Amino acid sequence: MAPLIPQGFINPDLSLFFAFVIGLGFGYVLEQGGFSTSRKLAGVFYGYDFVVLRVFFTAAITAAIGLLLFNYMGWVNYDLLYINPTFLWSAIVGGVIMGFGFILGGFCPGTSMVAAIIGKIDAMLFILGMMGGIFFFGAFYNTFEPLYNGSALGSIFVFDSLGLPRDLFLFLLVVIALAAFIITRKIEDKVNGIQSEKGLFHSSYVLPFAFMSGLALLILILPDQPKAKWYESDPESLLVEVVSGDRYMQPEELAYKILHPDENDLVIVDVRPAEAFRQFRLPGAINIPLDNIQSRENRRRLKNTGKEILLYSHGSTSADQAWMFLRRAGLDNIRVLKGGLNNFFTGFFAEQEIPASGKYSEKEQFERRFVERAAKAFREGEASRKTPSAAQPVRTLINIQPPAAGKGGC
Amino acid sequence: MNPYLAGFLLGMVLLASFFITGRGLGASGAAKSVVIESIGRVSPEYAQKHPFYASFFATGDGRPMKNWLVYLTLGVLGGAFFSGFMSGRAGLKIDKGPRISNRTRLIMAAAGGFLFGLGSQFGRGCTSGAALSGMATLSSAGFLTMIAIFGTGYVIAYFFRKLWIS
Q1: I need a labelling partner for B99 at 20 to 30 A (CA). Which of A14, A185, A256, A373 fits?
Q2: Per its UniProt record, what PANTHER family does this chain match (chain B) (predicted)?
Q3: A23, A37, A59: residue with CB nearest B11
Q4: Could you give the ipTM of this predicted complex?
């Protein structure tokens, strides 16, 4: 059922209200966590106070585990979450600059807001400086642009980058965080000249330890998804749909839409292998081979088009398989070209039999004219046999994407 | 407040944010909206033609301030003020290390803010928007930014120790 706003469960106009309410919680917890003092924040770099590290890591891991559990239970559709896109060098350079800013300023943007509102003058100066920095970036945007938009790797996941299974990565992350909690406690006690406890466990982190390790273990040992998620179609209703055949689009309807771009609201998806697509394709079609249709990225993009999707293959089999998968994954508004390309061509390119009488009825004449016109248009247009060449630009899903719904986090 | 409890609660706020809106938290975005709105007021033509600013006038009814992150930050201000006021921490004050003057502290705070503002544009978010929210969704960008911020901090901390420790 979630995320609620992207799914349309909550009016987008209300999202600003929710932003305010979430902000209240964010601000309250940051202030209570002690993030309103620059000296405390800077302590993480000098070993006298590691509160930042404790709060930051606990929060990140709690949310990460929570999201995966919600996803497991089927309460959140991970495909619809905003995953920060990775621009390799821009992220590194930005992080390094921010590291300098952290040491000099003693705040990060969120904490400076928290500190400024309760009267910290240094935080107010920090915010003014921050606006100056943003203005500076905008003023020299043309210089920065190649770095800013360069080395784009898309919305990739860290466990994929590291080549680890997701759940194992999360488990290791929890172990690392817990180890860091113990080590930083020892360092902190030493720097501040406090007698450290004998045992490894400090009473303040026994509970979070048990809780987080428990959840991480749970994720690690849980079997694969037990049941359909809420947004997935259940098998019974899917079966009814399969039998009904409502998904099929007749070749005539498709031809009409291709010939009348104004009335064409279709995203035409060719599910044949890329090689076959390069040799021949319907006008305006994009290629997602059947093997790739299951990828998260493709599913999300198809869902985001907001248009009717038409699948086709040589016959109907591959397209039907793709239809079945996408329907099960919760996409609706998907059609399949009846009989596939083969049927489409018999309809438009094969010689028509002339009736024995030698005359067409009015209706037949009308249909014939349409067929001839379509065949002519297709022969002259894009739908003619093409020699395979690598240079030919292949239209991909990215080209038809509407602009991203939300811009990045901070 | 116990830092682990605070972290857990912050994690819950973050989770609620994802659950309701599909995205995480952010803070520098609001500052950005203020900057862009100001530029739009001063010179609408420049802002509309600028490749970086123009997209912000294309969304939210063309008003950069009608933005999710702006309202989030308004909430942050409200929540923090409530917390600080109730705990008796509100009041004009400058926090600094023992060895520097107020003037040095304020100059350094502004300089640090400048760098953070600049860096958060490259990083597509700050510690909350890029690092924290990015780590919660296990995105590579989140971990990369987090490591770059804190890694740099530790590497250079020694050279700036005069600012913070005696």
Answers
A1: A185
A2: INNER MEMBRANE PROTEIN YEDE, SULPHUR TRANSPORT DOMAIN-CONTAINING PROTEIN
A3: A59
A4: 0.94
